[in-house]
Specification:
Rossmann fold; 3 domains; 9-stranded mixed sheet; 11 strands; DNA polymerase, domain 1; binds S-adenosylmethionine; globular; 17 helices; alpha/beta; 414 residues; two-stranded parallel sheet
Length: 414
Amino acid sequence: MATLISKISLLSNPKLIHHRRRNFTLLSRSAAATAISRANKRKALEKEKEKRRTRSDKEIDKDALIDLYNSNNLHNPNHIPVMLPQVLDVFSNSFLNSFVDCTLGAAGHSTAVIRGHPELKYFVGMDVDPVAREMAQTRLNSVLHGRESSVRVFTVLRNFRHIKSVLGEMGEQDLEVDGILMDLGMSSMQVDDPQRGFSVLGDGPLDMRMDPQASLTAEDVLNSWPDSEVGRILREYGEESNWRTLQKKIVEARVHGGLHSTGDLLDLIRSVTPAMRGGRQGCIKTATRVFQALRIAVNDELKTLEDSLYSCFDCLAPGGRLAVISFHSLEDRIVKQTFLEIIKGRDDDGDRGSCNNDLGKTSDEIKEKEAWIRHTIHGSNGIILTKRPITPSEEEETLNRRSRSAKLRVIQKL
Ligand SMILES: C[S@@+](CC[C@H](N)C(=O)[O-])C[C@H]1O[C@@H](n2cnc3c(N)ncnc32)[C@H](O)[C@@H]1O
């Protein structure tokens, strides 16, 4: 009782109330200042990001998209290919005798390229996912049906890291291709199927294999990889700051039988994501980073990408182009750096060559013909046609949220 009375008297002391108010005002002022400075930092970062990319001003042909949607009997608007007009621009000035789509998916980009290039004689579509291949085949058949000129179409269930042997096995020895496309990441069919384990929103097995024939699953990584490796992938592939706690909890879970579903993993993430860090949203963001880390590890995505960029470039004919759409900064960094390495080449002594920005006549000629090209980088082997990556138009970002993180980079062989 005495304590209660003393508390009441303390609260009713006008001096103290004044103090408290002042402190509260001070506190809220400093909180507001922190929020403003954070918002300013965010704005500055956004501005910096805008500077480092070229946002496409290409308008979306909505009628064409609706047409594409209807003509392919799509049930999900996310099946609409990302940055389609920009990809078509990349190849619109080329005479495409041959074209390889390394990531066929539902063949959204491929059908549009085939439609736009009646001169095409040879098309190869690669994917590791049989569901994608089947869907793509149906869409390709409908495009090929009634087409006047003939094109040989091959769809193959292979990893794009094997592009050289795939082209060799087609019986077209030393075939050099005029255009190659890589649209990285998962297809919406994969994300939307909870049984594939890619989505943070559905409950399913901890699978995450793009290629259902591959042996390693996310469940294997979580339940049997060494602790330090689990930590490394969360840190390096997920860029997750809370990786130590997550690693500890994942390893601890093994004592109680391990993690066996995406739901189990989400529960674990929820248990270690402090409510302070944005509640449910914070938890989903952490989960997205953890899922990204696991997916990259399961499919060995970064090493595969780097090796494959070299292989794809080797397969290009002189003047041929390789276009790559990436969806996160780790991928984009690899594309950017590998393109720079590729164009430098090596001289007779095995030394690396150099590269130069926007060099002379070739660059001017290319830019004059193709309005989408802004700044280029020249090397002895090739030209990077996108010194800064091209990103989707604001309109596309609004229409298709998945496109928001897309970055397109293009290289041309000399
Ligand atoms: C974003 S989707 C492509 C969508 C496609 N451009 C379209 O318009 O429908 C990416 C596809 O690439 C496939 N993929 C991912 N990594 C691959 C790899 N290393 N080799 C072959 N295919 C791969 C996935 O299975 C998925 O179907």
